[in-house]
Every structure is written in structure tokens, then in C-alpha cells.
Amino acid sequence: MSAAFDFTSAFRPGLPAPAVKFAGFPKYNFVGGHNHPDHIPVDGLIKAAERVLKREGPSLATYGLQSGALGYKLLREFLSKKLKSYGDISASPDEILITSGSGGGLDLVANVLASPGDTVLVEQETYGGALTRLTRFGLKPVGIPLDEEGLRPDALSSTIDRLKSNGIRPRYIYTIPTVQNPTGAIMSEARRADVLKIAQAHSIPILEDECYSDLIWNGRRPPAMYAMSKAGGVIHVGSFSKSIAPAVRIGYVVAPWDVLSRMLALKTDGGTGALDQMILAEFCVSEFNTHVKTLNTGLKAKLDTLTEALAENFGTAAEFVVPEGGIFLWVKLPDNVDTRKLYQTALAAGVAINPGPEWSTNAEHGMSRLRLCFANPSHEAIREGVAALAEVCRRDFGVPARIANVKRA
């Protein structure tokens, strides 16, 4: 019997580390952008699927559902209306491109605007997947410090000037202005105007990632930067992954046709999943607003449970700003805690967390910070998981010094 072919020598140089086989979720899962099964509108999606397949099922016989390469027309028409009511964006269906999750949009923007070796400005704390993508494209992310409103205009301006003095022109600015990931900050309208003014003065495009903007407890948010920009220069990316379901891999890009036409030339997947688009459009036209209100009520309750559990188990050792929306809490522990090490020992105890350095361009700043996703675990799992995390942290780092605030029977 001949020996099995060894692919190792055939792999190209520079590949990332191999993926680890999935072995199931940990008992207490605070990582990723997962939701909870109870928050998925399963019955509504089933009814939507039946209706749309009976009506338009035969259109699956052709690529593009007879809607063209931009995506299913009814979904783009829904988005055109939704973007106006949620972010004050005026965009026709022909200015919206449906992608495979928001990540598909981030990839297309990077591919269109930048070349290997180029610099991209990002928020110092930002979406870890965006940092991974930039690195994969051979781009150099430069972090801009944040405050309670998100991206700091003064730091943005000084960084651009510093890079310019070294002959470097950033290709674009990547920002998450509404429910920032991981901090949860919401950039004010005045701050957005300042950032736009700086970007326009230097002719630098802005990539506005609004994946979490639907998840605001009171439903009120500033206008999107795309809507505020008088001169253009902003590309808007969004997703249904957080508002409907993570496994429904549907995102979108909003941009002028001269930008979308370049993206389409690079989008070689034969079209984003048509069936997902059809069901999503059918559901959202009548159910989106009601569903999001219910979802936000449930998420806010889980955040309350998480902050209470942290106070009970960590006391003042865990510092955080309670966000006004989203699915993440960004937590600061004492400086002696290395969350990269805490991640390893906590995982062995069945608790999964996101260590701060994976979400920051400044590893030292992120070392004692961690991101907790509160959307997926149940209320009971949140309480138990935080208690287990506190015990591991106390054992490994002496933090908290003792579990003093736990309620006694």
C-alpha cells in the first residue's frame, strides 16, 4: 500500500497557523458574537421561508435570483428603507451590495482601497477579526486611542500628521462608531462631524462598520457617518448577524456605484447565498422592527445579570463602563492580571473569554482587559460562569483578593 500523500511540502509559505478541530462549546461561553437560541425568530423564519419559496422558488434556477450581482432586490429594497429610518442614510437599492456577512464587505473594501504594505488607521481597541483581515491582506493597522465616545479626533489628527511627516498616507480609516466593539462606546454626532472633517481634509476614506447599531436599548442613535458626509468618502458596512442570527451569513455594503462596481469585479463567489437572502427579506419586511425591540429587551436583561455577577464576584477589581447596547462588555482587571494566561486556565475550567490583546493594537494596554459576550449564555450560565472565572483569577493572580461580595443564603 502506497504512503499517503504529504501535503505539508506543497503548502505555500506564510500560511496562518492551522485551525483547531471543533470540539464543542465550553460550558460557560463568553466568546464570539453568538446569540441565544431563544432570541432567534425561528417560527417567523419558517413562515417566511414557506411563503417566499412558494412564490419565488423557481428563481433559484438562475444565479442572482433575476436581481443581478448586487443581491436579491427585495432585500436591498428593505435595506434602503431600514437604513433611512435607523441611520438617516439615503441610499437606493442600487447603492447596496449584499455580501457574505459583514466580513465579506470588510474584505472587499480592503481589496479595493489598499495594497500590501499600506497603512490603515483603526481604533486602538477594535474588532479582532478586522485586525486579522488587515494582517492577512499584508496591511499595517495603526491604532488611534479611544475615550468614552470612541475614536479621539485629536489623536486621529496627530497620527495622520506624524505619518505624513514620514511619507505615509493611510489608505482608509476603519471605525465602529455605533456600539463600538469591544468597548460599547457610541460616538456623538458632534464627534462624528469632527472625524469626518479631519478625514476629508486629508482625502482619506472612512470605512464605517455598523454591525451593532441596531442593538441600542432605547432605540435612539446618532445619524450614520455615511449620512452626515456631504462630500462622500464614507463606505458603510452592516450585517444581520447580530440582529437576526449569526449563522445567517448576510451582510451589506453601502457605497456609490463607482465603488460597488469595483467590488463586484472582485467578488468571485458567484453570489451570496440566495436562499438566505430570500428568507431574510421576507421576514424583515414585516417583522424586523418588532423582533429587534424584543431582542434588545432580552439583551439588556442579560447585561444586567452580567454586571451584577461581576460586582458580586469581583467587587471593585473589575472595572467597566456599562454600554447602552450591543452584546459585549469590555472589562478592566488589575494590572497584574494577564488575560492571555487567564484565558488558558479559565478555558480549562470550562470558561471561555476573549483576552484583551486580541482586540487591541496595543498589546500592553489590552493585557489586563477582556471582552465578555453576554448574548449567548443563559442568565444562570452567566452567574455560574463569572463565579468560576473569579475563582480561577483569584487562584492564579490573587484577583479578587477574596470573594467578599457574594450573596449568602
Q: What is the element layout, followed by pairings?
A:
Elements: E1 28-29, H1 42-56, H2 73-87, E2 96-99, H3 101-113, E3 119-123, H4 128-136, E4 140-144, E5 146-147, E6 150-151, H5 153-165, E7 173-175, H6 189-201, E8 206-209, H7 225-228, E9 234-239, E10 251-254, H8 257-266, H9 274-314, E11 328-332, H10 339-348, E12 351-352, E13 354-355, H11 363-366, E14 369-373, H12 379-397
Helix pairs in contact: 1-9, 2-9, 3-4, 3-8, 9-12
Summarize the structure in words.
By secondary structure, the protein is of the alpha/beta class. The protein folds into 2 domains: 24-40 and 290-397, Aspartate Aminotransferase, domain 1; 42-287, Aspartate Aminotransferase, domain 2, CATH 3.40.640.10. 41% of the residues lie in helices and 12% in strands. Strands 2-10-9-8-7-3-4 form a 7-stranded mixed sheet, sandwiched between helices. Strand 3, helix 4 (128-136) and strand 4 (140-144) form a beta-alpha-beta unit. Helix 2 packs parallel to helix 9 and helix 9 crosses helix 12 (379-397).
